[in-house]
Amino acid sequence: MTGGGFHPGTPELLDGNAAYARDFDGAGMPAAPARRLAVVACMDARLDVPRILGLRAGEAHIVRNAGGVVTDDVIRSLCLSQRALGTREVVLVHHTGCGLQLIDGDRFLAELEAETGSRPSWPLETFTDPYDDVAESILRLRSSPFLPHKDHIRGFVYDVADGRLHEADLPAARRD
Q1: Dihedral (C-alpha) 61, 66, 71, 72: value to the nearest 10 degrees?
Q2: Which of 24, 80, 100, 109 has its Cβ near the most Cβ atoms within 10 Å?
Q3: At how many degrees (to 10) do helices 130-143 and 72-85 cross?
Q4: Which tens digit of pLDDT belongs to each residue from 52-73?
Q5: For 84-114, what is each residue's pLDDT tens digit?
Q6: Mind giving me the DSSP string for 30-54?
């Protein structure tokens, strides 16, 4: 046990895995997702991405990070997903009340640099409006030379208050 009353959850996680393994029926499931779908979503613990989208194991690749933003690593994952494992559609899921909306990126990075002595090479990717950020992420995907399949990219904002998805459309001037 560590200080501050924190109790590591690993024993409970292993118990959960044992229960999962008792009823496991996924042996032989292919690595390529059955729906040929890749989802990019925020890592926020409130988002149960498979349930939100009605997905089951084996139907989609799900890539998660802080904010669900399209970074170089997300493009790397989608490149492999499309080129090696046959996905053809990308769905972005951002959400209301995202922690990245509350952080002053410059201040956060300055504090990190002051504490560690170095500034990270990666951008923090904070934003103020999840709809605008979805639009930016769609544009990043469409402009990537590494993704061959860009015809079926859609973005949504999940409302943490009611559980609904709302499509984030690109402004007409930015669709092409």
Answers
A1: -70
A2: 100
A3: 50
A4: 999 999 999 999 999 999 999 9
A5: 999 999 999 999 999 999 999 999 999 999 9
A6: -SS-TT-EEEEEE--TT--HHHHHT
